Amino acid sequence: MKASEIRKMSAEELDAKLLELKDELFKLRFQQAINQLENPTRISAVKKDIARILTVQRDIELHGTDA
User: Fold this and answer.
1) Would you say residue 9 has pLDDT above 60?
2) Number of structural domains the chain divides into
3) If you placed Cys at 13, which of 9, 30, 38, 48 could pair as Cys (CB 3.0 to 4.6 Å)?
4) How far apart are CA 13 and CA 5, in angstroms?
5) What global pTM score does this model have?
6) Which residues fall within 8 angstroms of residue 47, CB to CB, at 6 or more apart?
7) Structural domain span for residue 32
8) How far apart are CA 22 and CA 59, in angstroms?
9) Do residues 46 and 24 touch, judged by C-beta distance below 8 A?
10) Spatial CB neighbours of 14, under 8 Å, sequence gap ≥ 6
């Protein structure tokens, strides 16, 4: 997911996507713990998506929606 796609989302969509990604990360970590994870690089991709969303949310908090 690109930052430009994230910036186009509303605050409610960002919150929903953040919860979805955190749930996916939990499931991926669980799969990794029981050695059933097929694509280990997916964990880092999900972490980066979470960080992008949190960064955009913080940017909106500091500068408003017009930034």
Assistant:
1) yes
2) 1
3) 9
4) 11
5) 0.89
6) 25
7) 3-63
8) 20
9) yes
10) 6, 53, 56, 57
